[in-house]
Structures are given as C-alpha cells and as structure tokens.
C-alpha cells in the first residue's frame, strides 16, 4: 500500500485504542479510502474517500460494508483478513474502468480496511482477460474450469458475482460447480429438471438472456450456463458485454477440451485394460494347451491330476495350483504344484468353515469361485492372510464335473490381482470339464481292467430316443454293436438292421433330425450313425459302463451292460433313468475275475490308449477295416472320424503296437 509512514503509524496502534483514534490516524495520514469495521462488517468509522465510494453524499457509519461496496462479500473479507498481504480488487462506482484494491488487517475486535483506487485501461483489462483465458488450458476438470471462469468474471471483468452451472445428465440437474462474489443464494442451489427458471431456459434454448438489474446468462452448449451478477450496477456497455461473451465462449471451449481429453483418457484406460485382459487370456490359453497335452498323454488318474497342476504352474503368472476332492470332513488335497505348497497345511479345508477358501466354496456349491484381489478379502478370514503371505494375490476354483458326477475341484492362484471376467472364467470352467472327463475315463478304465465285474440286463423305454424312433419307423429290430462317444452330446453308433434294405434305412434316418449322418460300412446291414443327441447307448458309456449289446424293438430296448465290481449299481441305473422315460433292472450277475481274462486285456488296452487312439481303433474295427477283404478303407474311417487319413493311419499303428505289446511283452 502507499504511504508507508502512515502504515507504520497504523501498525503502532494497539487493541486498546478507540475507533476514533484509528480514524484520526486514517484521516491525517491517508487520502485513499479507509474504514474501521466491527465483527459484523458494519462500518464504525470511515474517511471521506471511503464514504465517496457509496456515492450517496452522506455518512456510511453504521451501514454494512456490502451496502457501500457490494462486491466485498463476507467470504472475501474474512479470507483476505486471515492472509496478510492479500488483496481484493473489485470494480467500484459506475465507471467501467474504476477499480479499488482493498486490504484488511485485524485489530482486536475490529478490522482495518484500506483501499487504493486503480484506473484500469482497456488494454490492461484485455491483457488480464487473455492471461486468465490462457490459464484455462491448465484446468484438467470441469470443476476447475468453472472456478477459473467465475474468478475471471469477478476479478478481471468486475462483476459483483458469477456462477457456472454444469449439467449432470444422470440426475438431470444443473449444479453450481463454480461460485464467486455476491452471486446470490439462488446460485448455490442446483436447478432441477422441472425448474422453469432462466437458468434452465437458457440451457435448453441455447440463447443468452439478460435481466433488468444487469445480470446476464450465457449458454455453454451441452455443458451448462454462465451467470454473471451485476450487483445492482447499471448494465455493462457493449464493449464490456462483448468481453463477457468472449469469456463464455472461452468457458465452452475449455469445457469441450476437458471433455475431449477425459474421453481420450477413458479410451486409453479402456484400451490398456483390454490389452491386459488379452494378455491374461493368452497366458491362460497357453496354460490350457499344456494341460490338454497332459490329458492326452496321461495313463492314470494320478498322472492327470499331477500333470494338470504342473502344467498350470509352468505359466509365468500362476504361482500355485491344486486338485482336491470333497469328503465328509471337507476337501482333501490329491495333487498340487508350484511355490507355497505349505499353504494347504496352513488353512482349514473343513466344510464347516464359514469363511472357507475358494476350493471349499466350489466343492459345496459346484460353481466357480473367483477372487480378483485376495488382499481385499482379508477381513477376519484366515485363508486370505495365508495366501498373501505366499504372494497369492488372486484365486479361481472350478468344479471338476462330468455327466453330473463330481471329480473334485481345481484351484489356481496368481501372483498378481486378476479380473476374472466372463472370458477368463469360462476358459477355466471348460478346462475343469475337460479334466473331469479325463479323470472319469482313467477311473473307468482302471476299474474295468481290474478283472471282476457286474453284468446288468436293463429294459429301457425311450420312445424319442434316435434308435427307438428308427426301430419304430422300420418296424424292425435295431441292434447296436459299438458305441463311441465323440463329445458331450455327439455319439458314434454302429448298428445293424437285419432284413431291411439300405434305402429303407436311409429314408427312415432322413426323418430323424438328431441323426447327423448315415454311412453303410459293409455289404450287408451294418451302418455307422453320428447322432447329435444323448442316446441310451451313449449314456451307458458316459456313466462308466461298458456296453455289451443293445437291441431295440419299437419303444423298448434291451441293454446288456458290464460295470466294475465296486460300482454303485443303483446310482448307475438312476442316472440312466434321468435321460429315459423308464429304466428297469431285469437281471444282475456277478462275474469273477477268472471268468473275464479277456476283459483284463481289453481294460489294459483301454488304459494304454489315448481317447483318440481308442476311438480310431474301435471305429476301424466296427466298420470292418480289419476284415478280409476289407469292408471299409482307411479313407472311409478317416471320413467317419472327420480327420485326415494319415492321422487315422498313425492312430491305428500306435494302437496295434500297444495291443501286440500287451500280448507278447510278457513272453
């Protein structure tokens, strides 16, 4: 401030000095506006220069500060009074270029208000406006833009107050994101969708509006509205109003820039997340490919379980994997691989644990359990703490189920948080189904190779079953001699229809939509059917039985099945009944191992061959490939299997070598 001597005299004033004494100092030392205010910002003393600001020609003692200088709000005064050296610059008087800079100094219960007039020329205003507009480029949010705009409106253009309303499309409201100066109480309230006031009208119409008191409203496109409050002063001149319009244009440009940059940041973040998900998916698919190689080569259940865990943990992001089966007391680990194997000893795998690990939850629900970030699941549970201690940061557990039977759970832990979205979770779910099928097949082969078994004779009624429909259409008996499951719902059947010509069989098959193809495999009445729906014969094999014979007449089928000696016959019959109208057990015979030496060789062969090798061998045998002369060719077998002939030749050579090894290696 000017007149440093006067400032020194004022600083020497003490809290005990009266307002009259302070006024004497102001009058004798200062020619610029000065006043003493009480705690309510009421003028208790003022010099002539300060009283001249009111323009009334009378004393302002006893008047509120805001009646003398409307732009000096309580908020602005208190903020600057607490920050020595800070000033508030406001427009005073009717001249558009007349400005006054005010400073405030607390003196006990009073405030000393000192002013200094400033004549601001057009060039200075334009320079300040340009600098403020350029500062908008540093704003990173819509709220920051709103704050900068309202400060420019009051501090540079001299409005008594200003408000920027931003539109919230989700709530359909215009909310005051930036408020400066004496903008009025209404400017601090959100404008709802059903409001018919000027703010909503300007926003919807996109047309500026002005009030008699000098207030102006400028649309900011789709972003909101700028309101400038004149504070009771006359309307601005055309030139000053043009600057206000340019400020509104700058506000709209800045909001568009922020919106555009925000959209670009969101897109970049979305692309980054997509890249991370693709990386995770590729890593998962790589692990799945390793697991599938294990499933092809494994000979025993133990080989499957241990090999799957090892294949998963070969990945750079899966630290630990294990397979367990549910028992009476919880989940019992059967195989594991990776770092931190002591984790299984550190956590409770009891079924009664209310805060059980993922594997126990999956075993209880038969559903996928996924934990994106283990750290977020800590709470009062023990297993996340044990997992974090071993750097397990994400987990997924999937059920191992095939044909409605549970073969345990597969659980894997990652060394970083993972978003188990639908794509990743579905890959692990399908992997679990493949592992379950492999375990089921190895267990079945192991039981059948053990020797003793149970022979069952069943009477099955399934009129909509493909073989039943074929027998009813032909009015003949259809015998099924071989069943080869292809996938979950597709089965390859080798059937014979004695006494019926090939054309009749072909015509009858044409009317059965579940049959995908019919191939005559011999000169007589032998046919290969590819059926795209679960069949009685296929379900027998899928539920762990070995089909010995099926004879279908009309709606009834007589099925001869062999189960392992330790198989649960009632469970087998019940499961078969789920897909048939009626299943009756008509005979049951136990066969000791000594009566089934040939089954031992068959079981051993099934255990030695992979699924594809066994499928190729059985298809070739059933289609007459090994007859003399051959009833079908290698090319025909390849066509049935849907693979290339060299692939069939390789499968058959490997299968024959393994069969001969079983016969001759012990000699």
Question: Approximately how much beta-strand content do the residues carry?
Answer: 15-25%
Based on secondary structure, the structural category is alpha+beta
Helical fraction? 40-55%
Q: Please state the average pLDDT score.
A: 78
Secondary structure tally: strands? 23
Unreliable stretches (pLDDT < 50, length at least 5) are 1-16, 594-598
What is the CA-based Rg, rounded?
44 Å
How many DSSP H or I helices? Answer: 22
Shape: elongated
Q: What profile does the largest beta sheet have?
A: 8 strands, antiparallel
Distance between the termini: 116 Å
Q: For the largest beta sheet, what order do the strands appear in spatially? A: 19-20-18-17-21-22-16-23
What would your notes on this structure say?
With 667 residues, the protein is of the alpha+beta class. The protein is built from 22 helices and 23 strands. An 8-stranded antiparallel sheet has the order 19-20-18-17-21-22-16-23, sandwiched between helices. Strand 1 and strand 2 form a beta hairpin. The N terminus is likely disordered.
């Amino acid at each position: 401030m000017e007149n440093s001597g006067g400032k020194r005299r004022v600083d020497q004033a003490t809290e005990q000095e009266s307002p009259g004494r302070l006024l004497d100092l102001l009058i004798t030392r200062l020619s610029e506006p000065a006043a003493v205010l009480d705690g309510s910002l009421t003028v208790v003393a003022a010099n002539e220069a300060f009283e001249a600001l009111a323009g009334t020609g009378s004393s302002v003692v006893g008047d509120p500060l805001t009646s003398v200088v409307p732009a000096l709000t309580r908020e602005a005064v208190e903020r600057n009074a607490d920050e020595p050296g800070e000033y508030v610059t406001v427009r005073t008087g009717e001249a558009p270029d007349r400005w006054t800079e005010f400073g405030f100094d607390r003196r006990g219960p009073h405030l000393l208000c000192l002013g200094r007039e400033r004549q601001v020329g057009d060039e200075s205003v334009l320079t300040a406006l340009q600098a403020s507009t350029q500062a908008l480029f540093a704003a990173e949010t819509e709220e920051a833009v709103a704050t900068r705009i309202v400060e420019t409106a009051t501090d540079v253009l001299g409005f008594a107050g200003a408000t920027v309303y931003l539109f919230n499309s989700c709530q359909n409201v215009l909310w005051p994101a930036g408020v400066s100066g004496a903008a009025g109480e209404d400017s601090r309230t959100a404008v709802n969708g059903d409001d018919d006031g000027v703010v909503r009208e300007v926003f919807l119409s996109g047309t500026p509006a002005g009030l008699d008191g000098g207030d102006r409203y400028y649309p900011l496109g789709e972003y909101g509205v700028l309101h400038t409050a004149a504070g009771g002063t006359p309307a601005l001149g055309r030139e000053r109003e043009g600057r206000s319009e340019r400020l509104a244009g700058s506000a709209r440009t800045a909001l568009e820039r922020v919106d555009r940059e925000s959209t670009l940041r969101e897109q970049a973040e979305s692309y980054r997340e997509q890249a991370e998900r693709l990386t995770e998916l590729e890593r998962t698919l790589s692990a799945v490919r390793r697991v599938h190689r294990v499933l092809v080569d494994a000979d025993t259940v133990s080989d499957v379980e241990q090999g799957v865990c090892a294949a998963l943990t070969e990945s750079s992001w899966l630290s630990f994997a294990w397979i367990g089966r549910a028992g009476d007391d919880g989940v019992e680990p059967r195989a594991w691989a990776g770092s931190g194997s002591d984790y299984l000893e550190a956590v409770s795998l009891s079924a009664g644990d209310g805060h059980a690990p993922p594997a126990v939850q999956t075993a209880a629900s038969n559903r996928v359990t996924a934990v994106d970030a283990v750290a977020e699941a800590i709470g009062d549970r023990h297993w996340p703490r044990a997992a974090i201690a071993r750097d397990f940061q994400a987990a997924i557990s999937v059920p191992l189920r095939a044909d409605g039977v549970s073969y345990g759970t597969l659980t894997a832990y990652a060394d970083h948080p993972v978003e188990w979205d639908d794509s990743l979770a579905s890959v692990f779910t399908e992997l679990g189904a493949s592992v379950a099928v492999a375990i089921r097949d190895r267990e079945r082969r192991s039981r059948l190779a053990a020797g003793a078994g149970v022979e069952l004779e069943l009477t099955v009624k399934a009129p909509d079953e493909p073989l039943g429909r074929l027998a009813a259409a032909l009015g003949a008996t259809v015998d099924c001699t071989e069943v080869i499951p292809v996938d979950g719902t597709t089965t390859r059947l080798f059937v014979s229809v004695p006494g019926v010509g090939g054309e009749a069989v072909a015509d009858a098959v044409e009317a059965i939509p579940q049959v995908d193809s019919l191939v005559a495999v011999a000169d007589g009445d032998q046919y290969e059917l590819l059926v795209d729906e679960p069949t009685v014969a296929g379900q027998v094999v899928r539920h762990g039985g070995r089909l010995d014979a099926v004879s279908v007449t009309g709606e009834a089928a007589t099925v001869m099945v062999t189960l392992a000696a330790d198989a649960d016959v009632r469970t087998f019959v019940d499961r078969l009944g789920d897909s048939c109208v009626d299943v009756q057990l008509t005979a049951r015979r136990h066969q000791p191992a000594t009566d089934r030496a040939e089954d031992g060789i068959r079981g051993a062969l099934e255990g030695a061959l992979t699924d594809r090798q066994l499928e190729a061998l059985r298809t070739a045998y059933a289609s007459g490939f090994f007859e003399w002369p051959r009833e079908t060719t290698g090319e025909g077998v390849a066509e049935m299997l849907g693979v290339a002939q060299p692939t069939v030749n390789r499968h058959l050579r490997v299968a024959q070598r393994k069969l001969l090894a079983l016969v001759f290696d012990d000699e």
